[in-house]
Amino acid sequence: MGISVDPVSLREPVEDRDFTEFYAATNRAATAQVYAMIGNWHEAQEAVQEAYARALARWRQVSTYDDPLAWVRTVAYRVSVSRWRKAKRLVFSVPIDTAGVPDPMENHVALVAGLQRLPASQREALVLHYLVDLPVAQIAAQLGVPEGTVKARLSRGRSAMAELLGEDDGV
């Protein structure tokens, strides 16, 4: 009864293995969450990859945080906002190759379209609460706002989404 050990993994420093495990366990969720916040799959993928690259460069520090994924998600969102501002200033369009990207389900399209029509603060609160499943207190801490502000954003965002999605359904 021997223990099987991958000789390649033994050559990686422990910190690198920890990061690799963190990345493997969280990448899909982080990308989906950022996509829900910004509404562009390709941009979400790029922003999340940039955030993971930054996390790796600071892994000794980031790995000590209570929620390293929250750090990655926040950095990815900020990266995407920064890129959007730069692209908006340049005012150019580049065709996007969608080969290999699965078609989204109709309800996901409606949800993301509705989220995109909300103010960024409401959209971020809704995504963190309903898609990431964070409690109000944790969202407030992550965003650096009072819990009452998060509750107000959630309430306004829910009302707006109900109205937006109701319009789409012909109600």
Structural account:
The protein has 171 residues and is mostly helical. It folds into two domains: 90 residues, Rna Polymerase Sigma Factor, Chain: A (Orthogonal Bundle), CATH 1.10.1740; 69 residues, Arc Repressor Mutant, subunit A (Orthogonal Bundle). Helix content is 74%, strand content 0%. The N and C termini lie far apart (65 Å).
What's the domain count?
A: 2
Tally of alpha and pi helices: 9
Reported for the largest beta sheet, the result is: none
Q: Please provide the ordered H/E string of secondary-structure elements.
A: HHHHHHHHH
Roughly what is the average pLDDT, rounded to an integer? Answer: 80
Oligomer: single chain
- Under CATH, the topology of the largest domain can be stated as Rna Polymerase Sigma Factor, Chain: A
Q: pLDDT below 50 for ≥5 consecutive residues: which ranges?
A: 1-12
Gap between N and C termini, in Å? 65 Å
SS-based class: mainly alpha
CATH class of the largest domain: Mainly Alpha
Per the principal axes of the C-alpha atoms, what is the gross shape?
Answer: globular
Shape-level CATH architecture of the largest domain: Orthogonal Bundle
Strand content: under 5%
Say how many strands there are: 0
Computed CA radius of gyration, to the nearest angstrom: 19 Å
* Helix content range: over 70%
